[in-house]
Amino acid sequence: MWYCISKLKICLNTFAFFVVFCAFFTAFLEAKITSSHDLNKRLQLFLKNPSLKNVSCGVSIVSVNKNSSLFNYRNNDLFSIASNMKLLTTAAALEYLGPDFEYKTTVGARGIIAASGELHGDIVIKGSGDPNISGRFYHGNILAIPESWAHAVKSKGIRVITGDIIADDTIFDRIYTHPNWPENQLSEWYCAPSCGLSFNDNCVDITLIPNKKPRGVVELLFEPRTSYFTIYNTCVYTSDKREHLYSISRKPETNEILIKGKFWVNASPEKTWVSVHDPSLYLATVFKEILEKKGVEVCGSARLIDEGDAVESDLTVITQTASTMEQTILVTNKQSQNFYAEQVLKTLGAQVKGRGSLAAGIEVIQDFMNKIGFQPDEYHIDDGCGLSKDNRLSPKMITTLLAYMSKHPYGKVLWNSLPTSGVDGGLRRRMGSPKYKSKIHAKTGYIARTSTLSGYIDTTKGDVLAFSILMNNFKNLKVIQKIQDDICQAMVDCYQ
Predict the structure, then answer these.
(1) Sign of CA dihedral 187, 189, 193, 197
(2) What value, to the nearest 5°, has the Cα angle with vertex 199 and ends 173 and 176?
(3) Could you identify which of 243, 349, 380, 496 might form a hypothetical disulfide with 392, taking C-beta atoms 3.0 to 4.6 angstroms apart as the criterion?
(4) pTM for the whole structure
């Protein structure tokens, strides 16, 4: 009898467990279905916004862990993607080069260093395409790296250089700017040229300083202070705030910078950045001037390497500067730095294809796209940063890329490089309320009539959502960004 009662208890316990399990599983499925249904319902409502009437828009949302699609809207159509192109460029760099890839810039002597301190020959700066030769990682000290080089030269006992300061930029070609970039904006920082030997993001920093003297010429602070560029400043102070309007530009194919207009006497200091022409010569010139200030006489000139300079075999290394691809990717995506993205693209070409050119870099991108399942005739790549309107990808391509990278050995590097909602980068002023702050990790993108947002949402349910929102041909950017934010916030709400 006791045996029968025990068996009955076991059966009842098993049945109870089964009932509880079924209830839990049913609730789980219902919650999943409800989340998906709620998301679809809310997103369909957003996409019916009258502001999107004539806007080309595509959306793709996928569950990375479950490898399933959660929402699609024109997800196979091609769109201009603006700076979302940087996702593809930096992901390809992680795939083919890895985060520990090092850029190495070498400063060496070509010639004999005499006991008297004379270098009978040249100093050569050999570039590797490093975009990080600036003050960015040196507490804002623009001259930190070339000054360290000058110290190393003096440490070798060199006091006189009979030859030249030669800039070896041959790792890349000398096609500095993309032919499809807007010609009237080439002096802007976001159109900075790409070069095998670069300095200070290939820009000069200019700050306009307020002053209480109306009609006087505006005082300027520019860094670095160098003879490489010439400033023509006709901008004057005004006591009338309504007249506060000025322009800064660079004459094409020169380093003549023109500043004109009026600057209000009570304005705060205003800083801007102007791109330079022939950037490798820019660095060589600044380095020569630093050497001379530190007491090293340079008898020759600063110049570019030419075909007659066979420096590889007889170069004595004096010092070397290095930076990593991980550093580079962090700046590329957090700051949306076009210059960095173009440097990465040509680096891919140089390291993988043996040619540091735009075309070679795009070949590597195409190889990567093929690896994740897309053929060259299905999309179009025109540059590495997204400034060209001719880049064309679909939302599905971007979420496929993001899903691939989320499981990549170096996927965390890409994740960490993305702007975070309410915290930094292009999302520092977006989705900053406590419920959404730090929940969205995504790359923004904007060029004329194009706004994009693609990235990840780490849900509290243990899943990762990859999403891409691409919008073209709109009139009001703020309205478009609000809809993008609404879509992201709906994802957070439905998958908490």
Answers:
(1) positive
(2) 30
(3) 380
(4) 0.91
